[in-house]
Design goal:
Strand order of the largest sheet: 9-5-6-7-18-17-16-12
CATH architecture of the largest domain: Roll
Oligomer: single chain
Distance between the termini: 37 Å
Low-confidence stretches: 1-9, 143-161
Shape: globular
Number of domains: 4
Strand content: 25-35%
Structural class: alpha+beta
CATH class of the largest domain: Alpha Beta
Number of helices: 13
Helix content: 25-40%
Radius of gyration: 22 Å
Length: 446
C-alpha cells in the first residue's frame, strides 16, 4: 500500500469485513506486501474485544467539537510480535483512541510486523454489537492474497482520505504522552460510578479530577496530583467496554495550582485488552496543532539521527530507548529527538501503560516535519538568514520581516517572546518560531 496525505488514496480490499460462523474477518488494505496476514487466530475474550473494536471505530466516526455527519475513516492496525494495536483519531482530531490486544487476549500467531488501515464498515459494526457469551471469535487481519476486479469475485475498492492531521496527531500525541505519569487507578465498581457521574456530551468545560480515596473528585481548578478532564463527554466511548474492565487508570503530566489545561489519558484494562482514550487539553483543540514535537525537531542533527534510528527499529512490542541509543551510538536525548522526527510520519507511538515507545510500519519522509509544521520551517528560515542576534546567555533579538522581537530565557530554561503568538498561547501550544530560531542558533532546547 502507498500511504498518501492531502489526497484521496484508493484502498483495495479482497472483500468487505464481516462476521460469520467462523469468526470476524477484518479485511486490510495492505502492508509490507500486498494484503499480508498479520494475525490469524482467536480473541480470548470475544465480547470485550468486540466492544473495544467498536469504541475505536466510533471515535474515528465522531466529531466531538462542532459535530457533523459521521466521518468515514478507517482505524489503523499494527501487528508487532505479540500484540495487535488498533488506533484512530476523532474527526476533530481531539480524541486519540487505541485498543491493545495483549498476549493474553490472543490465541494465535502474529506472523508479520506491519501497519495498515482496517475496514470497519456498518455491517461489521452491527455484527460486532451482537457478539455475546462465550462463542469463539476468530480474527483474520488481512487475507493471503490480493485479488482486484477478477471475473470470479468482487473486490471492494474504497477511496479513503488519509488526512495529514492524523499524521500530525500521531506525532504530537506520542511527545505529550511521554511526559505522562500514572495519577490514579480506580477499581471497576468505582470506575463505573465515576463515569456515570460525568457531564454529558454537550458539556465542554475543563474539569480536573483529583484522587479521593478509591475514586476521583471533580473540581473546577487544578491542584498538584490532579488530572485534566476537558470535555468529559468525550469519554463516552469507554462505556461499552466498562463492564469487562478490572480497573480504570488515569495518566497525565504534573500540574500545579494555576496550570493551564493539559492532555490526559484514560485507560480501561481487562487483563487481555487495554482501551485508552487520550483527550486534547480543550475540546476545541485538535492534537494536530499542539506543537509539542517542535522542540525535539529543532536540532541540526535530528534528520540524520532519524534515518539511523529508523534502520534500527525492530518489531518488538516496545522500543528500549537506552538500548537503541547504544546501538546507534547516540545519547538518549538525541534518540528521543529522532523518535519525534519519525513520529511526524506516524512511525512511533507511546504506550503510557508500559511507559515505552512502540513502532508502526509507515514510510518515513525526511522533509515531512517541516512541511507539516510551518513554525519549524519559519524558524529554520530565520536561523539560516542570520535573523537571530544573541545578547548574552539569557536574551536574543529576532528580526522577522519589519518586526523585531525579544526572546528571553526563563530560570527554568524555557523561552519567552514578545510576539503575538506567545502573548496568546504563553507556550501552551509549543514554542513560537522566534524562540525556535533562537534555540537552533544556540543549540539548546526551546
Amino acid at each position: 500500500m502507498v500511504w498518501a496525505v492531502n489526497a484521496v488514496q484508493t484502498y483495495r480490499y479482497l472483500a468487505p469485513s464481516g462476521l460469520s460462523s467462523s469468526g470476524v474477518a477484518l479485511q486490510t488494505s495492505g502492508g509490507p506486501a500486498a494484503n499480508p496476514r498479520f494475525f490469524s487466530g482467536f480473541l480470548t475474550t470475544p465480547p470485550a474485544a468486540a466492544a473495544g473494536l467498536l469504541a475505536v471505530a466510533e471515535v474515528a466516526r465522531t466529531r466531538y467539537f462542532q459535530p457533523v455527519s459521521p466521518a468515514s475513516l478507517d482505524p489503523v492496525v499494527t501487528g508487532s510480535a505479540d500484540r495487535l494495536r488498533f488506533e484512530s483519531f476523532s474527526g476533530c482530531c481531539g480524541v486519540y483512541a487505541r485498543l491493545d490486544a495483549l498476549p493474553a487476549g490472543l490465541d494465535g500467531e502474529i506472523v508479520a510486523h506491519g501497519t495498515t488501515n482496517v475496514d470497519v464498515n456498518r455491517p461489521l459494526r452491527e455484527a460486532l454489537a451482537r457478539v455475546a457469551g462465550i462463542e469463539p471469535l476468530h480474527l483474520s487481519v488481512g487475507p493471503d492474497d490480493l485479488t482486484v476486479s477478477t471475473m470470479d469475485g468482487s473486490v471492494v475498492e474504497r477511496k479513503v482520505p488519509l488526512p495529514s492531521r492524523w499524521l500530525r496527531g500521531f506525532a504530537e500525541v506520542h511527545v505529550l504522552a511521554a511526559a505522562f505519569e500514572p495519577r490514579a487507578e480506580l477499581p471497576a465498581a468505582e470506575a463505573a460510578a465515576f463515569l456515570r457521574r460525568l457531564p454529558g456530551a454537550s458539556d465542554r468545560s475543563v474539569l480536573w479530577a483529583v484522587p479521593a480515596g478509591r475514586t476521583l473528585r471533580l473540581t473546577s481548578r487544578p491542584a498538584p496530583g490532579a488530572v485534566c478532564l476537558a470535555g468529559a463527554g468525550r469519554l463516552a466511548a469507554l462505556r461499552g467496554m466498562l463492564r469487562f474492565a478490572t480497573a480504570l487508570r488515569v495518566y497525565g503530566p504534573a500540574v500545579r495550582a494555576g496550570s493551564a489545561p493539559v492532555a490526559s489519558t484514560w485507560e480501561l484494562d481487562t487483563g487481555a485488552l487495554r482501551l485508552s482514550l487520550t483527550l486534547s487539553p480543550e475540546p476545541h483543540r485538535g492534537f494536530s496543532g499542539e506543537g509539542a514535537a517542535l522542540t525535539a525537531l529543532a536540532g541540526d542533527d535530528v534528520t540524520d539521527d532519524a534515518e539511523l534510528v529508523s534502520a534500527l527499529l525492530s518489531w518488538d512490542p516496545t522500543i528500549d530507548v537506552d538500548a537503541l541509543a547504544t546501538a546507534a551510538g547516540l545519547d538518549a536525548g538525541r534518540v528521543r529527538g529522532a523518535l519525534a522526527q519519525l513520529g511526524t510520519a506516524g512511525r512511533v507511538g507511546f504506550d503510557v501503560s508500559e511507559a515505552a515507545y512502540f513502532h508502526r510500519v509507515m514510510p518515513y519522509e525526511a522533509g515531512r516535519a517541516e512541511r507539516d509544521n510551518p513554525r519549524l520551517a519559519g524558524a529554520r528560515a530565520l536561523a539560516d538568514a542570520g535573523a537571530v542576534e544573541l545578547d548574552g546567555d539569557t536574551a536574543a533579538t529576532v528580526r522577522s520581516g519589519d518586526q523585531v522581537y525579544r526572546v528571553r530565557r526563563r530560570p527554568d530554561g524555557g523561552l519567552t517572546c514578545t510576539c503575538p503568538w506567545w502573548a496568546k498561547h504563553r507556550g501552551d501550544r509549543g514554542p513560537c518560531k522566534h524562540a525556535l530560531a533562537v534555540s537552533m542558533t544556540v543549540r539548546v532546547p526551546a
